[in-house]
Amino acid sequence: MLSIGMSxxxxxxxxxxxxxQADSHTNSNLLMIDAAQEGAGASQIxxxxxxxxxxxxxxxQRYEISSAQIQVVWLKAALAHELPGFPEKAQLLxxxxxxxxxxxxxxxxxxxxxxxxxxxxxxxxxxxxxxxPIAYESAFAVKWxxxxxxxxxxxxxPWISWGPYLWADGLTPRRDGLIWERSDFEADGAHPSAQGxxxxxxxxxxxxxxxxxAKPWFFHS
Length: 221
Hints:
By secondary structure, the protein is α/β, with parallel strands linked by helices. The chain is about 40% helix and about 10% strand. It contains seven helices and five strands, in the order E-H-E-H-H-E-H-E-H-E-H-H.
């Protein structure tokens, strides 16, 4: 299982790996590799044979894993330094995610499942990385990507589905109680703090524990 995405994705997936490995119910034969990278925007990831994918290959080599062994991907990517504009920016992200899935399907011939998540809250951001409402609107890109795949009869492409939905409107509780506090973020308001990383990693772990498509391979048989 591989993570693909930006710095937030990398930090969150690394913590998820720690939590999953400490859980006695997790399949001990499942190797989880963080291939997300600091500073990697969605447009950058969507470039075939670009620097991002050279680094992914390097990471697989470090684990002595071949591309044919990758079967599951958690994809969480976002546009960087974009001005607001809906639906145009969400459509731009959708295009980048579509291109990324195509790269994944060609690069990893045994890839079966791609779980896609959108951004966490961006209302505390002190930068132009992914502020609101772009962070919230990024979920539309995921929604449209999945709808596109549902309507596509090409069965050679991997199955695409929602990963955990991570956005909540700051201190306004979601129906399940999720909120995002300022302390969940670092000084820039864009990158999650250790507290925020743990929050996402815990949601990711709970998601794979309960997702019907994940249970057969995430748990011990």
